[in-house]
Amino acid sequence: MFTYNFAKDHVAAVESLAKPITIRAMRKDGRAPKPGEHLRLYTGMRTKNCRPIMEAVCQRIQEIRITFDWVAIRGGQENGNSDWIYLNKQVALQLARTDGFTDFESFWRFFAPQAVGGAFHGHLIHFRPMTRQELRKISTTKKPKTKKQKS
Question: Residue 73 and residue 76: Cα distance in Å, rounded?
């Protein structure tokens, strides 16, 4: 399971499913969610205003590179495609808007501080809300019993 925090200005878009994606930097340990894996989406993490947004399922994950003038996406773990696909400006702008930005410039400004050698390298994670059946399944999963301490 992976947990992701969203800025408060993106919460309404996540809740309404207008933002069914998130772009995250590569983790130092190399781990990334796999299609079908449980995701927990929050806002305000590490603050007193922390609250859950939704329980979600990873649908697809792709590598992404973003620079000031281009975006490239590499296949997906589910299909093993290793070719980079460079998005035209119209598709890159649509990706930026789907991710909650009004234009490509603000999209790039957000990722630029994390860029190494002029390019941000991360994961494009597509998700959907969990169904009621999936939620029931995770809520009924037995938790390991803890040993009672002697008094």
Answer: 9
